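Regression check, 2-hydroxyethylsulfonic acid case 255:
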Amino acid sequence: MKKTILITGATSGIGKSTAYRFAAEGYQLILTGRREDRLKQIANELQHEFNSEIQTLCFDVRNREKTIEAIQNIDSNRFPSIDILLNNAGLASGLGTIDQGSYDDWDVMIDTNVRGLLHVSREIIPIMIRQGHGHIVNIGSTAGKDVYLNGNVYCATKHAVDALNQSMRIDLLPHRIKVTAINPGACETEFALVRFKGDAQRAGAVYDGFTPLTPDDIADTIYYVCSLPHHVCINDLTLTCLSQANAHYTHKKNI
Ligand code: NDP
Ligand code: 8X3
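Current build output:
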């Protein structure tokens, strides 16, 4: 029987690359995000290229009721099990000192990166417990291992993901559900564009002077941790590009 992966935030970046990677490996896909046009386009491409079985769910992970409703709408005939949950939807909003932080930016990061991850996990974990297996992959960050200047609330949300990742693993041990954190360093996606609210110049400058990770690099790593023998668990994996040591040391050339 084909396996199914549910990916939150599949409309862009790491989530989108992971959808393509798992589709190429013959997985069935449940893809989520807020931008319905992109979900439809990606689903069409994957059906055309890989003949994938796909359901798209358009909802905002911050909204608890909509998340519950969307997950209740999963077609269990087509998707009798959910083998992997990739908790990937997330963002940074703004970059500034704590005394000048925007309440709205703080809310959107906490509500998406922490509450959103909890909403989806709370609905999927009982399904995994009932089916007797599952693998949850939480996208953390180097910002969840260390903090950096002006990163304050984003770093706090990713530290929360780190704590939840560890807690989930303990709580779900009796149910034989794997829990893995993937903690990427700088990776060129729409992340910086979102952080800087559409300022392409500022977003592009983030990657000046070094070669960052690509979303395909992360997707390959996610596929790797998900394809190990049943008894083998990678619990926590941090990956950076060659120029980055951790959340605050990046060696940049000519800038
Ligand atoms: P992108 O901006 O390219 O993708 C983010 C994805 O999250 C989009 O598909 C977006 O979909 C979705 N998303 C955001 N907010 C919501 C929401 N409220 N409800 C549902 N979906 C949402 O960035 P990345 O691919 O880089 O980010 C993916 C994850 O990786 C995030 O958790 C990020 O923190 C983490 N990360 C990124 C790094 C980087 O350098 N890029 C490094 C370390 C971690 P839509 O807008 O359609 O809803
Ligand atoms: C995203 C990477 O360096 O902007 O988590 O925090 S960084």
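Comparison notes: The chain has one domain: 4-239. Residues 4-239 form a domain with the Rossmann fold fold (CATH 3.40.50.720). No diff flagged against the previous build.
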